């Protein structure tokens, strides 16, 4: 099992530029919420987040998921793109939320002490960052023992035929800033977690929902 009580040493990982997202905020906001919102809401509410829980969302973007968290939780969202965070901040101010904050931060080098959060979430981000394994390791590091990690993302299919078909789109999607060949099992190797569930909301969905408990 990996030791997680220290932050990665040496040269900080080069963050994903996020220029794609910076430039595309308006278009992104027009199409993405309809696709993603329902899935995020259903899976977050099934976690029954406790009163006073400290929640970290990594790659919070424009704050698409923020109103799915109960207002009895203390929610912090981080993202590399300040343009995305500006949208989230506008929404937080409009909704007069006092339980939600956002701040700029690299997912691959989270600026928190180990074991700081009861729940660490991330939606549609781990295949966008430069070093997904480092992001996952960081999410686990900052989660308290007994706390939960919820990741919703596209991962490479275990069905070789589907994997090949999706791989053929990989060149295009990489130019858009995200990869299709991320293997979930490789990301989770040796981390101090127990997988509680890993499912798709429907068989045709491209996205997997991973719920893990930090041990
Ligand atoms: C596809 S968007 C998903 C945003 C949001 N979670 C959602 O579901 O709408 C990916 C997000 O990852 C952010 N991102 C990319 N690289 C990052 C990094 N190294 N650290 C933090 N955020 C990053 C982008 O700025 C963008 O907001």
From TrEMBL:
Signal peptide (residue range): none
Enzyme Commission identifier(s): 2.1.1.-
Cited Pfam families: Methyltransf_11
Keyword terms of this UniProt record: Methyltransferase, Transferase
Name used for this protein in its record: Putative methyltransferase YcgJ
Gene Ontology MF: a single term: S-adenosylmethionine-dependent methyltransferase activity
Highest taxon in the source lineage: Bacteria
InterPro entries documented for this protein: Methyltransf_11, Methyltransf_Superfamily, SAM-dependent_MTases_sf
Keyword Methyltransferase: yes
One biological process term in Gene Ontology: methylation
Keyword Transcription (UniProt): no
Domain called Methyltransferase type: residue spans: 56-150
């Amino acid at each position: 099992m990996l030791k997680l009580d220290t932050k990665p040493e040496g040269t900080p990982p080069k963050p994903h530029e996020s220029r794609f997202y910076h430039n595309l905020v308006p278009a992104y906001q027009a199409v993405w919420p309809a696709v993603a919102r329902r899935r995020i809401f259903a899976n977050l509410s099934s976690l029954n987040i406790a009163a006073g829980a400290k929640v970290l969302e990594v790659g919070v973007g424009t704050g698409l998921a923020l109103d799915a968290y109960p207002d009895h939780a203390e929610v912090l969202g981080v993202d590399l793109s300040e343009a995305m965070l500006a949208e989230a901040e506008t929404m937080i101010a409009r909704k007069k939320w006092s339980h939600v904050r956002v701040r700029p931060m690299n997912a691959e080098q989270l600026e928190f002490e180990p074991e700081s959060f009861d729940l660490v979430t991330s939606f549609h981000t781990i295949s966008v960052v430069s070093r997904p394994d480092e992001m996952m390791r960081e999410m686990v590091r900052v989660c308290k023992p007994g706390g939960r990690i919820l990741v919703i993302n596209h991962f490479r299919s275990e069905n070789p035929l589907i994997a090949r078909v999706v791989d053929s789109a990989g060149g295009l999607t990489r130019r858009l800033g995200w990869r299709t060949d991320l293997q979930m099992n490789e990301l989770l190797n040796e981390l101090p977690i127990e997988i509680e569930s890993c499912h798709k909301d429907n068989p045709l969905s491209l996205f997997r929902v991973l719920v893990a408990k930090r041990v």
